[in-house]
Amino acid sequence: MTQMYKPLMGRNPDLQPELWLVVGKGCVFHPQPGQWLWCNNQLFSECNHVVIGHYGGKPVAVTFQKDVPEAEQTPVRSVLALQDEALTLLLSHGLQILTAERDHRYCGRCGTRCEGKAGEWAMVCSRCKACYYPRISPCIIVLVHRGATHDQQEVLLVMHNRHVRDNPVFTTVAGFIEPGESAEEGVIREVLEETGIKVKNPKYCFSQNWPFPHSLMLGFHAEYESGEIQLDNKELCQGDWFELDKLPPIPPGFTIARKLIDKFIQS
Ligand SMILES: [Zn+2]
Question: Catalysed reaction per UniProt (predicted)?
Fold first, then answer.
């Protein structure tokens, strides 16, 4: 049966968890193959945890553990690759709440310990009362295309230095939005910086939450305007124009990069 995940809108200290999502560094610790949550468990209830929502109607808590002996261990990205909507929501939400708690343990203004605020996800300084909400970092991700007609269309895809060894796929250009910049300006700057290509008419398509560690990916299509490919070698090792029926290995279906490529092909 497909379960639903309904996130809480803030901490509820009175809610007792019945299920546990247990994450480690880059992985999920789970009780059995294919079973992702632990049922009420003495071991985890003694540890630092946060109730984050309801999964299948039951309150679910998230906790970070360094090690769980005899647990199954699956990389977070492999869990997301299952494309189980409720599980993806639960995991993305849980990871970002844990990141926010870890990053805001101390006040950035006065250095005093922060506490979780009931009814919100904010951490509040116990001395100066400064309030720290979970950080969400907007990024742009863009499929650049050129060609007069649909039959002649080519798309610009690049390969990252950090992916070349373990996961050599070609993907779309992406980067963080800078302070003071609109998303559209970010698209134009980022493509120029990374590939030397000037683009125009960025068109927003859709967005995706990406909890590594707290990105909100804003997906665009943009048209080629001018320039030759000149890669930023610090980040990229390959980049080229590809015809739609001769695409290289590209990212899997759960990624926004792939959704941008698929949307363009189907348009
Ligand atoms: Zn403070």
Answer: a 5'-end NAD(+)-phospho-ribonucleoside in mRNA + H2O = a 5'-end phospho-adenosine-phospho-ribonucleoside in mRNA + beta-nicotinamide D-ribonucleotide + 2 H(+)
